[in-house]
Amino acid sequence: MNSGPGIAPVPLTLPDLGAAFPGPFPTSPHAVTADRHLRRWAAERNLPVPADELRTLCGITSQGIVRALPTADLDSLLLAAELFLWLVAFDDTHGETTAAADPAALAGHIDELTGVLADNTPTSPPGPFTTALLDLLDRIRDRATPSQYLTLTGHLHGNLRGLLWEAHYLNDPSRVPLHTYRTMRPLTVFARTLTAITPIALSYELPDRHGAAHLVDRSESAVACLAGWVNDLASYSREASRSPVPPLSLPTLLMREHRLQLPEALRAAARLCDEQAVLARALIDELSATGSLPLTHHAQALKHIVHAFIWHIDHDRYTTP
Question: What range does the domain containing 234 cover?
Fold first, then answer.
């Protein structure tokens, strides 16, 4: 566990989420098919990702999706996998350290993509990520209800806004209050977009009654928060080793706000993950107990999404710089 370039490793404290979300986690049988499909899809769309990085991204995306959507049919599984790979590849290519060096360039890319999300025709020849998004949205629109489509595109817009926000603070995380990070982190981990495509992939419609919508939002928000914090711990070593600036992540902000040393901050972050897992599980159980079949389906889907984020903690993407 590195705390920064040239700094001695610090043992990583990982949360024990088994009490709230015990395994084994169900998995779709289509992992190998999904991995191969994603490599072909990315190549056909000319996504500008180096070959080694693309193999890793396709691997973690396919393995994550088969855990997040273990009961989805193959076509739905592949569509969700493409969308998630598109998001992560865009972030890796135009966000993170690239965006920190040139936020204006990221803003230009995001402006083009938000235009597509608003159903505007690109005014200039679209780049590969824009072309891929146009295709994805066309196919999602064919499967989704109008409400589902608006929910999904709204979360995609939030993801892009979150990446732009993140770019402005990567070079100086000390400017970010912890409470602000708690609000913004769910936008940059993409979990809410995954929860939005799940009803489309699994063919159920969430009720729009006010009480049900509020409980769904609270449950999804709790899952997204947990996903962000778990990812912060999983990726801390990788991110810290790549920059002289501490990562914009939960442990970094806990160190500053509570005047902790890194090992203490990592342990504190793990405890917060454990507490958030208990909260997320309680809300999911409440959702499951409503007596509504679509809400029961969604509660089960949210558990599977948590399973996917728990699984990815030990992936090579985060253990190698």
Answer: 31-319
